[in-house]
């Protein structure tokens, strides 16, 4: 299971505010992806729980060592013999929550974690308001995961709007970039495809973006359209707006080709602050 080529499966979900229900739904799709030949399977942000209420959120989560969903996904990766990236799960850390991505190897071992760095604190034109920083603790560390086919840079959702993070990951050796997300319907329609293609093009890397979709228990609407994008910006798979699985064949030799044609990762220059 090494070399330059592999099959990826992206899971698209409509997560609810019930952990057991979401873990069961994710498992069905993960099994479907593995049965379809996926060697790497990825799920969206908020896989195990999409709960906007602070009090309800804290009542439903645990520290990592006591979180049953972590154990279940570890066992599932081992059973299926796949690399499994759980886009994020809320994990209790002190008096706040980490929005944490988990990377499991095919032996079930937890190989890497990443805590979302950028907090979604916004007021949208349609009246929707989000304040992630009220409940969540921002991560501080950029993270790479070593897979059999190369290195993957880990990001989550709102991180997408901060290109310096993606460039840092690419310049540190990432040939793949993951962006599990729960993008809102409004911002997704305006920016999702454009920003993801930009991150792929400017870094000459594959982008894998499994997404939440539909209307959730809180009334929040997410955009869907899980995407696999090649280093030239070509969309290889688009999950549309229904829950399900998208499969795509990945050829990492395209990374070297793109970076040879446009070697911009080597051309950064120091720039003085505006006068």
UniProtKB/TrEMBL annotation:
<dbReference type="GO" id="GO:0016811">
    <property type="term" value="F:hydrolase activity, acting on carbon-nitrogen (but not peptide) bonds, in linear amides"/>
</dbReference>
<dbReference type="InterPro" id="IPR001110">
    <property type="entry name" value="UPF0012_CS"/>
</dbReference>
<dbReference type="InterPro" id="IPR045254">
    <property type="entry name" value="Nit1/2_C-N_Hydrolase"/>
</dbReference>
<protein>
    <submittedName>
        <fullName>Carbon-nitrogen hydrolase family protein</fullName>
    </submittedName>
</protein>
<feature type="domain" description="CN hydrolase">
    <location>
        <begin position="6"/>
        <end position="252"/>
    </location>
</feature>
<comment type="similarity">
    <text>Belongs to the carbon-nitrogen hydrolase superfamily. NIT1/NIT2 family.</text>
</comment>
<keyword id="KW-0378">Hydrolase</keyword>
<dbReference type="InterPro" id="IPR003010">
    <property type="entry name" value="C-N_Hydrolase"/>
</dbReference>
<dbReference type="InterPro" id="IPR036526">
    <property type="entry name" value="C-N_Hydrolase_sf"/>
</dbReference>
<dbReference type="Pfam" id="PF00795">
    <property type="entry name" value="CN_hydrolase"/>
</dbReference>
């Amino acid at each position: 299971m090494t070399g330059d080529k592999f099959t990826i499966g992206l899971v698209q979900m409509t997560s609810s505010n019930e952990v057991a229900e979401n873990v069961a739904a994710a498992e069905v799709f993960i099994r479907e992806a593995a049965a379809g030949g996926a060697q790497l399977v990825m799920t969206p942000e908020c896989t195990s729980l999409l709960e906007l209420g602070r009090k309800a959120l804290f009542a439903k989560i645990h520290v990592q060592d006591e979180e049953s969903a972590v154990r279940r996904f570890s066992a599932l990766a081992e059973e299926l013999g796949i690399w499994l990236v759980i886009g994020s799960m809320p994990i209790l850390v002190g008096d706040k929550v980490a929005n944490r991505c988990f990377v499991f190897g095919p032996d079930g071992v937890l190989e890497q974690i990443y805590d979302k760095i950028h907090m979604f604190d916004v007021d949208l034109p349609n009246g929707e308001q989000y304040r992630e920083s009220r409940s969540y603790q921002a991560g501080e560390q950029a993270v790479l995961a070593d897979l059999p086919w190369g290195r993957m840079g880990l990001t989550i959702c709102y991180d997408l709007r901060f290109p310096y993070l993606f460039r840092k990951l690419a310049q540190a050796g990432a040939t793949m970039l993951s962006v599990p997300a729960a993008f809102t319907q409004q911002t997704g329609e305006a920016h999702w495809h454009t920003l993801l293609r930009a991150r792929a093009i400017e870094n000459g890397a594959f982008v894998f973006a499994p997404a939440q979709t539909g209307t959730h228990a809180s009334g929040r609407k997410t955009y869907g359209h899980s995407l696999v994008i090649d280093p030239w910006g070509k969309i290889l798979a688009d999950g549309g707006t229904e829950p399900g699985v998208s499969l795509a064949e990945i050829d990492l030799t395209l990374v070297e080709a793109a970076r040879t044609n446009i070697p911009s990762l080597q051309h950064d220059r120091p720039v003085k602050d505006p006068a």
